[in-house]
Each structure stands twice: as structure tokens, then as C-alpha cells.
Specification:
Strand order of the largest sheet: 9-8-7-10-11-13-12
CATH class of the largest domain: Alpha Beta
Strand content: 25-35%
Largest sheet: 7 strands, mixed
Number of domains: 2
Distance between the termini: 49 Å
CATH superfamily of the largest domain: Vaccinia Virus protein VP39
Structural class: alpha/beta
Oligomer: single chain
Order of helices and strands: EEEEEEHEHEHHEHEHEHEEHHH
Number of strands: 13
Shape: globular
CATH topology of the largest domain: Rossmann fold
Radius of gyration: 18 Å
Number of helices: 10
Helix content: 25-40%
């Protein structure tokens, strides 16, 4: 009989639980940083979970990775050098490398195990991205890398695990701090800004704010301490409990959150990228926030 993976609410007193059937477990173990499991599920295909939380699945990874990557890169329009913090599954890396103007991508992943698992089990997500000569792969702490780095980038994408433990005094009980927590702090965002070219942008993933409010409100507050413009946009990721994922785009260029349709269409057409989630219409609509999110942003 197949086992089940339990994804449990760590913020609100374990008030909900989601179960995914593990039809076949391909890997189960622990690195120095986190527990990891890779398994097959009849609906989602191959699944990667870290510390009991689904990170990506073959079936719906394109929702997340296309929103994370194409929305900011087409908004900017001239990205050549990209820094990805996290993203060890390779999905964001693969999408970035599809843009014809990309000259180099630096990917900083804390946990070598995640990359090893992606290259062995998740090739439908990462493809051959880790073999691309434009990639500079760094195994290490993203906060320390940014602090010591002297290179500059047009775009920095924070593709981390969820900020487990963020701002626990403002949640219903809090949770143990996860390995990605420091990537949502004001000091880190300030260091990222120092590494951006003029007109550059930073994008963070802010989990599912309906489930974990502080995962959006705290980073937005911290980003506003350093960037003139901070805008949220949405994507629905079916395998993430709560559904509506929010990303935050921060820059000193006040036009990046409202690029004209004609400009986006021209950039998308010129790039010639085949997508399953991203379109210019989805891009524009993603920045339209329902009242509950606008209230959190305020």
C-alpha cells in the first residue's frame, strides 16, 4: 500500500493538513539543512518536497516558474545578467535561459542535495539547464554571497523555500525558522539593491498570503525600506495549499509594474518563447490585486 505525504499547517496551530499519495518514493533523506523527498503522484507527476512542504511538481511547475521569471524579465526588457538565489530545482534557471539576450546566470543554492535530486529525478522541470555554459553555479548561503559579491546584475530572482518562521509575533503561533528565512530580511534586500544595475529589479516569492499573511506583509515592508517602487503580482499554483501565490517586484524604476501592452507584446513576440502559463494578458492582469491583497499591501 502506498504511503502518504502530509503537508501540515505550521503557522496557525496545525489547523489543516493536506495529503499527497506517494505512489513510488524515489528518494527520501536529509541534508545538513533539510529533509527531502522525491516521489511520484498519479495526478501531479513527480514531486519534490522539502521539510514536508511541496516545492515543485512536474504537472504545475510552469505556473510558478513562468510567473517568477517571464513577468519581470519582459517588464524590464533588457536583462543580460541574472542572479538566482535558491532555485535548486532548476525550473527558474531553465526559463531564464530561454531569453535570447541572457549573457550569464549566477545561481546560488544553499543545498547541494536539491541540485543533485533535480539533475537525477526532475529533468522534466530543469531540462539541461545545469549544463548551459552561461551558468555560474555557487553552492552556498545566498545572504553571504550577496554581501561579498562585487558583480552587478539586471535582475535578481529570490526563488527560495517559503519563509517558515517569519515574523512569528504577528502570526497565530509562529513556526520554527526554515533555511530560507534570512532571504526575506531588510538587510538582505538592501545588499541586493547594491548589486543591481541602474533600472534593475528584484523579485521575491511571498508564498500564499491567504494562508500565511506575514509572508507578504513583512517582506513588502522590508522592500519599501530600500526600493522606490514595490508592486505585487499573482499566479495560481495548484499544488500550493491556498492556491494564490504572490510575487513582489521591487525597483527604483517606477514603470516596471505598468509596462504598456504593446511593449510587452513586442518583447514576447521577439523572444519567441513557447509558454504554458505566461502571456501578455496574464502579465497585465497579474498586477490587478483583489481588495484583500491590496489591504495587506497597504
Amino acid at each position: 500500500m502506498a504511503d502518504w505525504m502530509n503537508e501540515t499547517d505550521l503557522v496557525h496551530g496545525q489547523s489543516w493538513r493536506v495529503k499527497l499519495k506517494m505512489e513510488r518514493v524515489l528518494y527520501q533523506g536529509r541534508s545538513p539543512f533539510q529533509n527531502a523527498v522525491v516521489f511520484d503522484n498519479r495526478f501531479y507527476g513527480r514531486v519534490l518536497a522539502l521539510d514536508g512542504i511541496v516545492q515543485t511538481t512536474e504537472a504545475d511547475e510552469f505556473f510558478y516558474h513562468e510567473a517568477l521569471v517571464h513577468t519581470p524579465l519582459f517588464a524590464h526588457g533588457r536583462v543580460r545578467r541574472v542572479l538566482i538565489i535558491g532555485g535548486g530545482d532548476g525550473g527558474a534557471l531553465e526559463e531564464v535561459l530561454k531569453h535570447p539576450g541572457i549573457e550569464s546566470v549566477t545561481l546560488v543554492e544553499l543545498d547541494q542535495l536539491v541540485i543533485d535530486l533535480a539533475k537525477r529525478y526532475l529533468t522534466k522541470i530543469c531540462g539541461r539547464a545545469f549544463e548551459d555554459p552561461r551558468l555560474k553555479l555557487v553552492i552556498g548561503d545566498g545572504v553571504g554571497f550577496v554581501a561579498d559579491c562585487r558583480d552587478s546584475f539586471d535582475a535578481i530572482l529570490i526563488d527560495s523555500t517559503d519563509p517558515t518562521g517569519i515574523d512569528p509575533e504577528n502570526s497565530d503561533g509562529g513556526a520554527p525558522a526554515g533555511p530560507g528565512l534570512m532571504l526575506f530580511g531588510a538587510a538582505f534586500y538592501g545588499a541586493c539593491k547594491d548589486r543591481l544595475e541602474p533600472g534593475g529589479l528584484l523579485v521575491t516569492q511571498n508564498a500564499v498570503p491567504f494562508v500565511e499573511t506575514a509572508a507578504l506583509t513583512t517582506p513588502v515592508r522590508n522592500l519599501r525600506a530600500h526600493f522606490a517602487q514595490v508592486a505585487c503580482y499573482r499566479a495560481t499554483v495548484p499544488s500550493f495549499y491556498g492556491g494564490e501565490m504572490v510575487f513582489t517586484l521591487a525597483s527604483d524604476d517606477d514603470g516596471l509594474g505598468r509596462v504598456p501592452r504593446e511593449t510587452l507584446e513586442a518583447r514576447f513576440r521577439e523572444a519567441g518563447i513557447q509558454t504554458r502559463y505566461y502571456t501578455t494578458e496574464v502579465h497585465l492582469g497579474a498586477f490587478a490585486l483583489p481588495p484583500y491583497l491590496a489591504e495587506l499591501m497597504a
